[in-house]
Amino acid sequence: MKVDWNVKYLTVAAYSFIVIALSIVFYLITSQLTMFTAQIHIFYQTMLPIIIGASMAYLFNFILEKVEGKIITPATKGKIKLKKKRAISMLITYAIVFTLLYIFTLVLFPQLVTSVVKFVNEVTDNFDEISLMVTNFIARINLRPDYMEYVTEWWQGILEQAFEFLKGLVPIIGNIVRILFSSIWNIVLGIVVSVYLLFEKEKFKAQIKKITYAVFSKKRADRTVELTKRADTIFGRFLSGKILDSLIIGILTYIVLITFGIPFPILVSFIIGITNIIPFFGPFIGGVPSFFIILIISPIKALWFILIIVVIQQIDGNIIGPKILGDSLGVSAFWILFSLLIAGKFLGLIGLIIGVPLFVFIYSIIKDNVETKLAKRGLPIETKHYI
Fold first, then answer.
1. Quick one: three-class SS letters along 14-37?
2. Closest CA to 261 of 222, 300, 224, 218
3. pTM of full prediction above 0.85
4. Is 330 helix (H, G, I), strand (E, B) or coil?
5. How many CB atoms lie within 10 A of CB 61?
6. H/E element holding 222?
7. At what angle do helices 201-215 and 218-260 cross, to 10 degrees?
8. Measuring CA to CA, which residue among 53, 77, 316, 372 is closest to residue 188?
9. Is 278 exposed, middle or buried (0-12, 13-18, 19+ CB in 10 A)?
10. How far apart are CA 383 and CA 371, in angstroms?
């Protein structure tokens, strides 16, 4: 006997079942929150090598594409098979990565730690002298007594906080090193995972694309593939360009600081290079603590440092950055600040690094949807028509 299904009531029943099921799942999660979070943590620890490996593969792929496309392919003139060409390209790629890691671990990192320890010792030994020097400087400004008291208390508070931070800085570095060494097995497994992912990256992409077209309608699958490619372009261009740009700026800053005899060149250059990854506001974020580090040792050289950083950032913003990154991010400074504040609040340092490209990606999707709806209504899509 053929059952005559009512599509309308069947749809209502399906949605009702989904809502009830989700409600039960939500209740079970909230009633067993501790157990649920413990299981999430176990799952995260299990997947950590995969996450590390996928992240490595994504970052190393930028080098691999350059090596394969610019060196191996022209050198072999297409006479070797893809697998052999990929194997050679990967050997060169990982050789570059491990060389950079070796330089950082055995050359740069010890000097960085030495600079931090030296800085902490000098500040600790001269804390009272520095405090007295600043207090005398404030006294010579001839402020009103009530303002003088407020400024003096404010500066003393800053010095005390800085002193407490510096005392705990060396243990923090030691803790970071301990965490890295405790995660060495996950990092090794991540490297192995990255090798497999890079060696057969075309196959993995094809499998994901195949599943996408099997699960979604052709229209939605096409849109998903297009958005994935767009995200890869935005994040890939930004991250690879910014890392290279920051490496160049860090090296350039170190050379200039050494030339001018600025204190702690390794430490300051490292701070400037790392914070330069953050767009637009990175130079300010790195320049302020670097200025105070130098100020404690030599106020005159701290003023020179400001001039040096301004010149270097002008070179970066007008010459190096455009050459590496190409076009701008396409959003105003307000939206850059907005994305940094929101992403930094919820994701911390990682949010400051990926917040801007993530916002640009979301902004592009919203822009597409808005312009599509305006076009359907026969309205202009350019913003200037609405000013």
1. HHHHHHHHHHHHHHHHHHCHHHHH
2. 300
3. no
4. coil
5. 19
6. helix 218-260
7. 140
8. 53
9. buried
10. 10
Determine the residue type at 129.
E
CB 271 within 8 A of CB 350: no
Spell out a b/e string for 87-126, using b for 16 or more CB atoms within 10 Å of the CB, else e: ebbbebbbeebeeeeeeeeeebeeebbebbeebbebbeee
**Contact in structure between 360 and 234 (CB atoms under 8 Å):** yes
Residue partners of 208: CB distance under 8 A and separation at least 6: none
Q: What is the largest CA-CA distance in the chain?
A: 101
- Report the alpha-carbon distance of residue 261 to residue 300 in Å, rounded: 11
Separation of alpha carbons 210 and 204, rounded Å = 10
Tokens of 376: 């359907």
Whether the CB-CB separation of 241 and 325 falls below 8 Å is answered with yes
Residues 6+ apart with CB under 8 A from 213: 221
Looking at the chain, the number of H-run helices and the number of E-run strands are 16, 0
Sole residue written with tokens 């009830």: 20
144: left (phi over 0), alpha (psi -120 to 50) or beta: beta
Q: Give pLDDT tens digits along the chain (387 positions).
A: 454 555 566 677 777 888 888 888 787 777 777 777 887 888 888 888 899 899 899 989 988 988 888 888 888 776 778 788 888 999 999 999 999 888 877 777 777 777 777 776 776 666 666 666 666 666 666 666 666 667 667 766 666 666 665 556 556 666 666 666 667 888 889 899 999 999 989 899 999 999 999 988 898 899 999 999 998 888 888 888 888 888 888 889 999 999 988 888 888 888 888 888 887 777 777 888 888 778 777 778 888 998 998 888 888 877 777 777 655 566 676 777 788 788 877 877 777 778 888 888 888 888 888 888 888 888 888 877 777
∠ CA(180), CA(356), CA(248), 5° rounding?
A: 60
CA 332 to CA 359: how far, in whole Å? 12
What H or E segment, with its residue span, contains residue 193? helix 184-199
Q: Judge whether 285 and 349 are in contact, CB under 8 Å.
A: no
